[in-house]
Specification:
With about 210 residues, this protein is mostly helical. It is built from 7 helices and no strands.
């Protein structure tokens, strides 16, 4: 397993730059009760927790296996734009699982009172069939990208089921805690799902792409 400190730092900076504001604002809202959240700032423990989350994500990204050449017998090698290099696959799958988890959060419970009309509309459009179809789509892409052969498909399904369970549990707990889903809780579920995917992907990919 090789390390890529520089490139993965760039990936992390791009990720934090894209989602960092939601991470910080979500942490501020989750820190205090909703009625007292106006004008509240980040407490030191919450700020430390945010920094730790970013560091953990960076470590997981650095530890991702680079892999080697695709076997000649693998028909997927003839799809260069649809079948990226081993190191690039989790970087594509991670945000997809995060976005799917945000859909799941909107489907778990109702949207909390006082949230934006946009969030309420999005929550109203989420139902079990829609969430399940998207889960199957992301799971299929995970199997397509991660599995080295048919033997590895059960391991890929474990990744998908692990993210499903962890994201649902997180969404359920946050919905109970805050009386429904808020923009902050939805973003938090997405962030948790991305971390869960990396945690589950790392041992599976290290087993499959041991070279």
């Amino acid at each position: 397993m090789q390390l890529r400190l520089g490139p993965m730092l760039g990936v992390l900076v791009a990720d934090v730059g894209w989602c960092g504001y939601r991470l910080l604002s979500g942490a501020a809202v989750l820190e205090v009760p909703r009625n007292d959240s106006k004008g509240a700032g980040l407490a030191l423990p919450v700020l430390i927790a945010v920094v730790l989350v970013v560091l953990v994500k960076y470590v997981l990204l650095v530890l991702l296996p680079i892999g080697g050449r695709v076997p000649v017998a693998d028909w997927r090698q003839h799809l260069p734009y649809l079948y990226p290099q081993v190191i690039d696959r989790p970087l594509l799958l991670m945000p997809l699982w995060g976005r799917w988890a945000m859909m799941l959060a909107l489907g778990v419970g109702r949207v909390a009172p006082g949230e934006s009309p946009r969030l309420t509309t999005m929550g109203g459009g989420m139902n079990l069939p829609v969430i399940l179809i998207h889960w199957l789509a992301v799971t299929g892409l995970t199997v397509f990208y991660v599995s080295g052969s048919a033997v590895d498909i059960p391991l890929c399904l474990l990744i998908a089921l692990g993210v499903l369970y962890g994201a649902y549990l997180t969404a359920f707990i946050l919905a109970r805690r805050f009386g429904g889903q808020t923009q902050a809780t939805v973003a938090a579920v997405g962030a948790v799902a991305e971390l869960l995917f990396l945690v589950a992907y790392l041992p599976v990919a290290s087993y499959i792409y041991w070279y």
